[in-house]
Design goal:
Distance between the termini of chain B: 16 Å
Helix content of chain A: 25-40%
Number of helices of chain A: 13
Strand content of chain A: 15-25%
Shape of chain B: globular
CATH class of one domain in chain A: Alpha Beta
CATH topology of chain B: Peroxisomal Thiolase, Chain A, domain 1
Helix content of chain B: 25-40%
CATH superfamily of one domain in chain A: Thiolase/Chalcone synthase
CATH architecture of chain B: 3-Layer(aba) Sandwich
Number of helices of chain B: 17
Strand content of chain B: 15-25%
Distance between the termini of chain A: 14 Å
Number of domains of chain B: 1
Strand order of the largest sheet of chain B: 3-2-4-7-1-8-11-10-9
Oligomer: heterodimer
Radius of gyration of chain A: 19 Å
Strand order of the largest sheet of chain A: 3-2-4-7-1-8-11-10-9
Largest sheet of chain A: 9 strands, mixed
Chain lengths: 381, 415
């Protein structure tokens, strides 16, 4: 049995949004259900995604039961990226207990600065006490380690930002858009922690996204244009000091599992579009390697040669990626939505003839956890 | 197609004030106990389900810090968190991971370490639940009336006191019945080596002598803030055969977690807040659906015992009615008759329950563990003397609104 995505929606990513969390979640959930052509009564189970620290309150889902439409429904909350909630929704459907699931992911970054939250993700006994580490300084360490191992330079890191911020200029939902960005603009932006500059950091913002997923029988009966989930791979790496920061080993494991499930042997040729969660620009290059679409240490060649531009051979983040706006828990889910849009032909930077796409979400410091989804159109039927 | 799933091993850490271990070590204690109990090696585990209330122990996403401690490095890990129900939600997640056919053997662990936060228990207050909404009020100019309502609600004990009073009004029971339930919890806990508050031979009179904190709740009625971790290992029917498990295992027969509207605040800015906190429609529907999925028609007859999530004694009475074991408002009569004692006709919380041990994240998972132990016949001193063929593990949380129900049995058969 397969699971299909039959509806989706997202809000515009903004900072300091003039909307309560409840309003934003209600609007997104309602839009997603409507885009699937369903009503609340059709939904069997609701899974939200948010975290207590980012939301600045305990039991972050408890006041959203009305807003997500989960009232008197089988409900739960994944406390990580929304794509993990989609994974759980798939499991609930594959277990044969539910037919249709609504997934809603949301973060209002203005409530509690996510960079501050990253400090609370550190081991409290040593790493937190030394007062040197947070997600940005750790990203700087990771970028240095990666640059040392590979041939990537600061210019390559800047080029990733240039590409994504240009792509974002066509995306109506994006927060940071720079159609005329240059490498100099990025390198001259404020330095956070060498080599990480302001424009190399995904800007935390406020936003929500939702998808409706359904069982194969239901999707075939009620949906004209389902997007099928063909492969899923999930893996968690060790904590910071127990792993090689210059590699995304858990992404290697996760992507191979997803390729196996989808029957893919050559991801570079068989996948038409990639939407990945790069919280920092160097991570996009590391993700190329983790996904196995380029050789070890050669991530930078891809960006230099324009292969990952939306008109290139292997488009990565035609939507602008996380660098164009990062509503933490919604960011991965938006990647999934963007791939689904490419497959049904509704994307802003639409790529011709997309049959298969890959969506990636990460979680934890220095991308400790990685989740990969392979989506496909209805070409088999 | 829904696969049959069994619990093949359980583990608990010792619960109480655990300043002797770190959060990582405490969770590892339960995880390795479960791995040993299941007689498997860590390499056999395909995936993990984890969860706790991250604010209470002061680490955001603590499982990411200790993947090595629980043998999860390189494996799929999924995390859920839903308040008091989190243990139940993690148990459900682990079940679904196996039932979906995605993984064969899954380890589910949940925990809490209250003593790590600067003011143990303070974070469990409703003010922390409401904090972000206060920020919205300040930003967007919402009315101060909502603020006042939140302030009046008090912490978990405060809001439960309203519920206790509402339950008394609807059932006609007296505070003395609450004393009896609390005394039973302390007495049973004395037989459970993992429990926190133990009081061998505690009587209702002993509890009645404790101070009245907020009517109708006495000090002796209130649960402790414990540290602890609980863990179960699930295996698919094929994996049970492949591992050649000969000893009794506990099969998951049905489960559900239907959410209700939050108990307060709804009135002022969300529309439909629950007025009578002792209604618990979410629990009634969760039980109905779980029984339907388990093929159980008459819960009182077909189920042999239950572990109910009751931090406060009125909740044991109330939820035992909502779960269909007694008629609405009649559970206190069963307590008077001794039906719910360990050696009674329908034992409830023979482990001492949440009233004696409450490490939030661990609590609802511990209900699942205790039911599994009773079915496997491994509950040692607090093993109920009757045959346990079906048992119900219940979890409760949110703002009086979340319920998790899991029906466990000694055979995979569903009618």
């Amino acid at each position: 049995m397969r699971v299909a995505i039959i509806g989706y929606s997202q809000t515009k990513f903004e900072y300091d949004v003039e909307m309560t969390r409840e309003e934003m979640v209600f609007k997104t959930a309602k839009d997603a259900i409507e885009s699937a052509g369903l009503t609340r009564e059709d939904i069997g189970t609701v899974i939200s995604a948010s975290t207590d620290f980012l939301d600045g309150r305990t039991i972050s889902n408890c006041m959203l039961i009305g807003a997500t439409g989960a009232y008197l429904k089988d409900e739960t909350k994944a406390e990580e990226d929304g794509m993990y909630a989609v994974l759980y929704a798939c499991q609930r459907i594959l277990a044969g207990i539910h037919d249709v699931a609504l997934v809603v992911a949301h973060t209002h970054s203005w409530i509690f600065n996510p960079h501050q939250v990253s400090v609370y993700m550190l081991d409290p006994l040593f790493d937190r006490q030394n007062d040197l580490l947070n997600d940005i300084t750790l990203a700087a360490l990771q970028a240095k380690a990666y640059m040392k191992r590979s041939n990537a330079t600061e210019d390559d890191l800047a080029l990733v930002s240039v590409k994504n911020l240009k792509n974002a200029s066509n995306n109506p939902y994006a927060l940071r858009k720079m159609p005329d960005a240059t490498i100099e603009d990025v390198l001259n932006s404020k330095i956070y922690a060498d080599p990480i500059r302001e424009l190399m950091v995904a800007p935390p913002c406020d936003g929500a996204a939702a998808v409706v997923v359904a069982s194969e029988d239901f999707a075939k009966k009620y949906c004209e244009n389902p997007v099928w989930i063909e492969g899923i791979g999930n893996s968690c790496d060790a904590y910071l000091r127990d792993r090689d920061l210059s590699r995304l080993v858990s992404l290697e494991i996760a992507s191979r599992k997803a390729y196996d499930m989808a029957g893919i042997s050559d991801p570079y040729r068989e996948i038409d579009v990639f939407e990945v969660t790069e919280r920092f620009s160097h991570q996009e290059l590391m993700i190329h390697e983790g996904l196995g679409i380029c050789g070890d240490g050669r991530g930078a060649n891809f960006i230099r040669m324009g292969i990952t531009e939306f008109y290139g051979d292997c488009p990565v983040n035609p939507s602008g990626g996380a660098l164009s706006g990062d509503a933490i828990c919604a960011t991965g889910l938006v990647r999934l939505i963007e791939v689904a849009k490419q497959i049904v032909g509704e994307a802003e930077n639409q790529i011709d003839g997309v049959q298969r796409g890959l969506a990636h979400a990460q979680w934890g410091l220095c991308a400790q956890k990685n989740l990969v989804f392979i989506l496909g159109g209805d070409y088999e039927a | 197609m829904r696969r049959n799933v069994a619990i093949i091993g359980c583990g608990q850490s010792k619960h109480g004030r655990r300043t002797d271990v770190s959060q990582c070590e405490m969770v590892a204690e339960a995880v390795w106990a479960a791995i040993e109990d299941a007689e498997i090696s860590p390499e056999d585990i395909d995936a993990f389900a984890v969860g706790n209330m991250q604010g209470f122990g002061g680490i955001a996403q603590p499982d990411l810090v200790f993947t090595d401690f629980i043998a999860a490095t390189g494996k799929p890990v999924q995390r859920v968190a839903t308040g008091g129900t989190v243990g139940g939600s993690v148990a459900h997640l682990g079940y679904y991971e196996v039932a979906s056919g995605m993984y064969d053997i899954v380890l589910a662990v949940s925990w809490e370490k209250h003593s790590d936060s600067a003011e143990p228990g303070a974070t469990t207050g409703l003010l922390h639940v409401a904090f972000a909404n206060l920020s919205y009020m300040m930003k967007m100019g919402m009315d101060m009336r909502s603020f006042a309502i939140m302030g009046l609600a008090g912490a978990a004990a405060g809001v439960s006191a309203y519920q206790a009073a509402q339950y008394m009004a609807r059932s006609g029971c007296k505070i003395e019945h609450y004393d009896m339930v609390a005394a039973k919890a302390r007495r049973n806990a004395a037989k459970n080596k993992y429990a926190h508050l133990k009081w061998p031979g505690c009587t209702a009179d002993d509890i009645a002598k404790t101070e009245m904190i907020i009517w109708p709740m006495r000090f002796g009625h209130v649960c402790p803030a414990s540290d602890g971790a609980s863990c179960v290992i699930y295996a698919s029917e094929e994996a049970v055969k492949r591992l050649k498990v000969e000893r009794p295992v506990a099969w998951v027969k049905g489960l559900a977690a239907y959410a209700d509207e939050e108990a307060d605040q709804g009135e002022s800015y969300q529309g439909t807040g629950v007025v009578d906190y002792s209604d618990q429609i979410g629990c009634i529907i969760s039980a109905m659906k779980a029984y339907e999925r388990a093929g159980i028609k008459d819960p009182r007859k077909e189920i042999d015992m239950a572990e109910i999530y009751a931090p406060f004694p009125h909740q044991e009475l109330m939820f035992s009615e909502r779960l269909g074991f007694f008629e609405d408002g009649k559970a206190w009569i069963a307590v008077e008759e001794g039906v719910t004692e360990i050696d009674g006709d329908f034992p409830i919380c023979p482990s001492g329950g949440v009233n004696a041990t409450n490490a939030i994240g661990s609590s609802a998972m511990q209900r699942v563990v205790e039911c599994a132990l009773q079915i496997m016949g491994k509950a040692e001193e607090h093993q109920v003397p009757k045959d346990v063929r079906n048992a119900v593990a219940h979890g409760w949380g949110g703002q009086l609104q979340f319920n998790t129900v899991m029906v466990l049995g000694d055979s995979p058969k569903r009618k």
